[in-house]
């Protein structure tokens, strides 16, 4: 199989005349280049129009002996990095004579696959090469899933340590990311579930095992299941956040209640002594010791008794 990184009219025409299978991979093609490759390979106008516009939903459209397969691959991002564009749309124009892949940004998975084909010089069937290109795009989600698992675990630990606005924002970010990934993976899964044989049976495509594309379908099912489980984990993080905040508010309310309860008898004592001040200074609080014992002493004793009672009931300690 020949691998091309640019449009070479003479070489492409020669390869087609020889019926030699080739792979043309274009990164960030212009509209004129897409239309030119469409006229050169006689692609269907609707397929060319979709590749010019991009922003297509994952799908498989067949046009006689050719087909347009739209995939969305994952763009790996480490947990500490911000990745505003986690997906890359890849258009695959399939035929028995060639496969053309178009994408707006350089795609590392396809670049590594091209190096692998060039270094190993594998002698495989055309159907195998098509399978490997699709498989690389689909398998690009697995590193992202591993990163998501780590991010969710770190988020759970952060919420338990102390739930704040940052943890809440991270929870909503993960929810949006999981929803975006699921919207990309589920249509691809449905395509391979319904039309898996269409790709394998394209006219002119050298026959081989149909199990290749069933393997892609199995990977998509696994990815979907993991995304669903991660969505449940993030939903659990939301519940954990609300529970942690409620517990913190309950602890604060308990502390304020204890303080208010201690000051309740103190308020009574100061009110009692204040209303009977003239009589007390004439009959009871004659000396300084009387003031200290009856005035301040009763308040200290009442506060101490209240604190002892709360400690005895276990209200002053932590919930641990």
UniProtKB/TrEMBL annotation:
<keyword id="KW-0460">Magnesium</keyword>
<dbReference type="InterPro" id="IPR002523">
    <property type="entry name" value="MgTranspt_CorA/ZnTranspt_ZntB"/>
</dbReference>
<dbReference type="GO" id="GO:0000287">
    <property type="term" value="F:magnesium ion binding"/>
</dbReference>
<keyword id="KW-1133">Transmembrane helix</keyword>
<dbReference type="GO" id="GO:0015095">
    <property type="term" value="F:magnesium ion transmembrane transporter activity"/>
</dbReference>
<dbReference type="GO" id="GO:0050897">
    <property type="term" value="F:cobalt ion binding"/>
</dbReference>
<dbReference type="GO" id="GO:0015087">
    <property type="term" value="F:cobalt ion transmembrane transporter activity"/>
</dbReference>
<feature type="transmembrane region" description="Helical">
    <location>
        <begin position="256"/>
        <end position="277"/>
    </location>
</feature>
<keyword id="KW-1003">Cell membrane</keyword>
<keyword id="KW-0406">Ion transport</keyword>
<comment type="function">
    <text>Mediates influx of magnesium ions.</text>
</comment>
<keyword id="KW-0813">Transport</keyword>
<comment type="similarity">
    <text>Belongs to the CorA metal ion transporter (MIT) (TC 1.A.35) family.</text>
</comment>
<keyword id="KW-0472">Membrane</keyword>
<protein>
    <recommendedName>
        <fullName>Magnesium transport protein CorA</fullName>
    </recommendedName>
</protein>
<dbReference type="GO" id="GO:0005886">
    <property type="term" value="C:plasma membrane"/>
</dbReference>
<keyword id="KW-0812">Transmembrane</keyword>
<dbReference type="InterPro" id="IPR045861">
    <property type="entry name" value="CorA_cytoplasmic_dom"/>
</dbReference>
<feature type="transmembrane region" description="Helical">
    <location>
        <begin position="289"/>
        <end position="310"/>
    </location>
</feature>
<dbReference type="InterPro" id="IPR004488">
    <property type="entry name" value="Mg/Co-transport_prot_CorA"/>
</dbReference>
<dbReference type="InterPro" id="IPR045863">
    <property type="entry name" value="CorA_TM1_TM2"/>
</dbReference>
<dbReference type="Pfam" id="PF01544">
    <property type="entry name" value="CorA"/>
</dbReference>
